[in-house]
Automatic annotation (TrEMBL):
Enzyme Commission numbers on file: 2.7.4.25
GO CC, alphabetical: cytoplasm
Species, as recorded: Persicirhabdus sediminis
GO molecular function annotations of the record: ATP binding; dCMP kinase activity
Gene3D superfamilies: P-loop containing nucleotide triphosphate hydrolases (3.40.50.300)
Alphabetic keyword roster: ATP-binding, Cytoplasm, Kinase, Nucleotide-binding, Transferase
Record flagged with keyword Kinase: yes
Binding site for ATP: G10, P11, A12, A13, S14, G15, K16, S17, T18
Top enzyme class: transferase
Name assigned to this protein: Cytidylate kinase
GO biological process: pyrimidine nucleotide metabolic process
Residues in Cytidylate kinase domain copies: 6-206
Catalytic reaction annotation: dCMP + ATP = dCDP + ADP; CMP + ATP = CDP + ADP
Length: 211
């Protein structure tokens, strides 16, 4: 039997990670957070004194970058230089530099290949920016979770993070390669005025209709 992919895209702090986690549990699918992979490349670069704003230096770093992404107990994990990365990925420095690194074609090619490869371990819910448009364009299951900029900024502040979500979204939407867009066939859910339960209900209804 072939494994299926559910694509969830949307801007920063739209609630897509929370929704993806809940849906993955509910539907019994592996959950993959692709933002963590881009964040891991930034963490590795900063660790090696490579500027995320210097594409040539970043690409040179990739040639012997010790990076692994695996599924453990239903969720994706990222490892760099043999170290499992968790809270490191949410530092202010990573937040500030991730959009720059995510705009580098070679970084995207490397990570998209790894993302597609994770399907061999089972069906997935994958969340990010280009999952429905680039990583799995042929899947019928696509959601785009949105929220107003005010709501998103408030959610991020409630997490205690310094994160210019508006700036990150502008960079992610305007870049040439794989910009954040609503993929063909995706159902848009604006979560600004909805509870988590309502978003999950709408998501399940949309996926049922798409299948
Ligand atoms: O999802 P999260 O906010 O952690 O993603 C961090 C950053 O990684 C995004 O702002 C974006 O620049 C990049 N990203 C991407 N494509 C994805 C997932 C994340 O470009 N599929």
């Amino acid at each position: 039997q072939q494994h299926i992919a559910v694509a969830i895209d949307g801007p920063a702090a739209s609630g897509k990670s929370t929704v993806a986690k809940k849906l993955a549990k509910l539907l019994g699918l592996n959950m993959v957070n692709t933002g963590a992979m881009y964040r891991a490349v930034v963490w590795g670069a900063l660790q090696k004194n490579v500027s995320p704003n210097d594409p040539a230096a970043v690409v040179a770093m990739l040639s012997d970058f010790d990076f692994e992404c695996k599924i453990n107990q239903g969720s994706s994990e990222v490892w760099v230089d043999g170290q499992l990365l968790e809270s490191e990925l949410r530092s202010d420095a990573v937040n500030a530099n991730v959009s720059a690194i995510a705009a580098i074609v070679e970084v995207r090619e490397l990570l998209v290949a790894k993302q597609r490869g994770l399907l061999q371990y089972g069906s997935v819910i994958m969340e990010g920016r280009d999952i429905g448009s680039v990583v799995f364009p042929d899947t019928p299951y696509k959601l785009y979770i949105d929220a107003s900029e005010e709501v998103r900024a408030a959610r991020r502040a409630a997490d205690g993070e310094v994160d210019a979500v508006g700036k990150r979204d502008a960079q992610d939407s305007k870049r040439k390669v794989s910009p954040l867009i609503v993929a063909d066939g995706a159902t848009v859910i604006d979560s600004s005025e909805m509870t988590l339960e309502e978003v999950i209900e709408a998501a399940v209804a949309a996926l049922t209709a798409q299948g």
